[in-house]
Specification:
The structure is a single chain. With 247 residues, this protein is of the alpha+beta class. The strands form 2 sheets. A 4-stranded antiparallel sheet has the order 2-3-1-4. A hairpin with a 5-residue loop joins strand 2 and strand 3. The chain is elongated and about 105 Å long. It starts with 6 loop residues before the first helix and ends with a strand. 17% of the residues are buried.
Length: 247
């Protein structure tokens, strides 16, 4: 016999297991908050912008083709900035105890669309160090690029600066806790329905009807022995068909 679950059954299950759902949700949010605030290392971000223009001796004549070529070369400049040649000099200048691969993972280079301007972004657990790396990276690129390519007009548009009260970009405790809230609710509801599915005990006459497929003809209340006026405690007798079920 096929079983169907009504909307009323769903609400009853959730109401019945509300404590379990709330407990799992609170635990998930608490764990997320503890990890975000006390375990994960805060990461700070700092950025600087660089403009790569045509050669200085060609500035007097505006050449559209030269500008287009410079825009197309942005990807090449990005690779050069993150190359061991540039990163190695930055690590040497700042006396960093890091390899070029470690420094490379902290640096991101993004170019503005159809523009000769690109942005160098550095992430580091120390906000002051992130500023130093970003500025030194821009300065090193500006000094080294004429020897690497025929480019002698690189300008730093905006240097990285240390804010008074810098805020980390990662982790994001509130976002993590919000995600944990949703995941906790989903896990709690899922466990509530799982426990309800595994619970095969008979608690009332509705369970008897569902289990045996027979209608309940009557209910015999349980009366405490020696007290005829005692209140009814349980309704668990039912007469079904030609037989009687007693407890």
């Amino acid at each position: 016999m096929e079983e169907t679950i009504s909307l009323k059954d769903i609400f009853q299950t959730i109401k019945k297991r509300l404590f379990l759902i709330g407990l799992i949700t609170i635990i998930a949010v608490a764990i997320s908050g503890i990890i975000s605030y006390f375990i994960l290392t805060p990461i700070y971000q700092s950025s600087t912008q660089i403009l790569v223009n045509q050669s200085k001796n060609e500035q007097q004549v505006f050449d559209v083709n030269q500008v287009r070529t410079n825009v197309e070369m942005i990807n090449t400049y990005s690779v050069i900035i993150k190359s061991p040649t540039i990163l190695g000099k930055v690590a040497e200048n700042l006396k960093l105890d890091k390899t070029t691969d470690q420094l490379n993972s902290q640096v991101t280079v993004n170019s503005e669309q159809n523009s000769q301007v690109f942005t160098i972004t550095v992430e580091d657990p120390d906000p002051a160090m992130a500023v130093k790396i970003a500025n030194n990276l821009a300065d090193t690129f500006q000094k080294e690029i004429p020897e690497i390519m025929s480019i002698d007009n690189v300008s730093v548009l905006s240097k990285a600066a240390l804010k008074e009260n810098p805020s980390p970009i990662n982790p994001k405790p509130l976002l993590n806790m919000a995600i944990a809230l949703v995941v906790g609710l989903m896990a709690g509801v899922g466990l509530a329905f799982l426990f309800e599915y595994l619970d095969n005990t008979i608690k009332n006459e509705q369970d008897i009807e569902a289990l045996l497929g027979l209608p309940v003809l009557g209910v015999i209340p349980k009366i405490t022995v020696g007290d005829e006026k005692a209140p009814v405690n349980t309704a668990s007798r039912a007469r079904m068909g030609s037989g009687t079920l007693e407890s």
